Amino acid sequence: MKGAFKHPLRVGARLIWLTGELMWSAARFIPCVLFRSGGSLFEARARWLQAACRRVLQIFNPHIQAKGPIPSLGLLVSNHLSYLDILLLGSLTPSVFVAKREVANWPVFGWFARLAGTMFADRERRAQVGPLTRQLRTALDQEVLVVLFPEGTSSDGRSILPFKSALLEPATMSPHPLSASSITYELADGDAAEEVCYWKDMSFIPHLLNLLSKGRVHISVDFCRVCRGPANRKELATQLRAEVFKLRRQQSPSLA
């Protein structure tokens, strides 16, 4: 919150901007999704989300460096650092996301996530994994890009947590393309690990207000296609984590 007190005019202006963009995006949902002229509901929601993400991401004054082939369908796995990850990836390519259950209850953003067709994972309830896996398979079969953060939670970016394999089952049983990405953030006027990354016991509103006070967020995201590997989901999780780790080392060789 210190940044919000240091730059109150910047934060106030950006909050007004954010409110306007959210209202614009909500209004566009009806013609873009409910009254779409063609295509699947998954595809319409993904394209609506892309337009919304592009506009909202600009509020954070990003400098984005993207490398590698940006996927348009199949399954994309990525490391997970912040709620900005969704704005970033969603802005680069039409996407449907898998998010943790808590996101559905976030103020305003949870409502937008539900509008966008986000699939919510509750890993504490094993009985919920089966229905979610079927949802994920349906989305893949309709040729949209599904974005999954297999770490299961966000981190400070200093390492890549072990990948959870439960939701990778559809990828072992389908011909859909597999891709991996690695995201890193930098701040010229702050500590990205504490002020961009959203992890441990941070509270959403204070974190957002502080982030809105920053001058510019530098973002690096690298993509790669993944050759289809083992049919066993646990082995696939290991392979995909290795691919993300490789991309991350290319971005920041000094990081473990």
Task: Give a short summary of the structure.
With 256 residues, this protein is of the alpha/beta class. It has one domain: Glycerol-3-phosphate (1)-acyltransferase, CATH 3.40.1130.
Detailed description of the structure:
The protein is α/β, with parallel strands linked by helices and 256 residues long. The protein has a single domain (2-251), classed as Glycerol-3-phosphate (1)-acyltransferase. 45% of the residues lie in helices and 17% in strands. The chain contains ten helices and seven strands. The chain has a seven-stranded mixed sheet, with helices on both faces. Helix 5 links the parallel strand 3 and strand 4 (119-121). Helix 2 (8-34) packs antiparallel against helix 3 and helix 3 packs across helix 4 (84-92). The two termini are 30 Å apart. The mean pLDDT is 91.
Notable traits:
single chain; 256 residues; alpha/beta; Glycerol-3-phosphate (1)-acyltransferase; seven-stranded mixed β-sheet; 10 helices
What topology, given as strand order, has the largest sheet?
Answer: 1-7-6-2-5-3-4
Structural class: alpha/beta
What is the overall pLDDT average?
91
Query: What is the percentage of strand-forming residues?
Result: 15-25%
Helix run count: 10
> How many structural domains can be distinguished in the coordinates?
1
Secondary-structure element string:
HHHEEHEHEHEHEHHEH
Helix content percent band: 40-55%
Q: Do you know the CATH architecture?
A: 3-Layer(aba) Sandwich
- CA radius of gyration: 18 Å
Task: Give the class-level CATH name.
Answer: Alpha Beta
Straight-line distance between termini: 30 Å
Low-confidence stretches: none
- E-strand count: 7
Please outline the major beta sheet. Answer: 7 strands, mixed
Overall geometry:
globular
Q: Output the CATH topology.
A: Glycerol-3-phosphate (1)-acyltransferase
